[in-house]
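User: Hello, beginner here. Can you help me understand these amino acid letters and fold codes? It all follows right here:
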Amino acid sequence: MPVFHKSIGLIAALMLAACTQPDSQVPAPAVTPVPSPTAQPAPPSESAKPEPAADECGASKLGSYMGQAAAADTMVKIKQTIGHERIRTINPGDAVTMDFRPDRLNVEVGEDGRIKRLRCG
């Protein structure tokens, strides 16, 4: 039995040795240039700044609804005022996706059940 174990060890060692390359064939590691510490990135141009989002959702029309109860009749009036139904009501503790949609109105409701924030997104 011990001869069998030695044979397996010898075979494994030979197989591993066959997988290696001689030192003369090992490629040199790639060198990545490092920028000098004094190099500064160019300042962004004025045209690179994003334009502020337009009030696509109609939130600017709804100032009078701040502080009102977020009841069904209030939400119907909000829909009529902005002219669309892309509204997301966010109650305390609600999970909210982070996707930004400028045409969607977010109605944030406080702990007291009243509208505390109206914004596009």
Remarks:
- The domain at 59-120 is CATH 3.30.10.10 (Trypsin Inhibitor V; Chain A).
- The chain is about 25% helix and 10% strand.
- The CA atoms of residues 68 and 74 lie 8 Å apart.
- The chain has a mean pLDDT of 80.
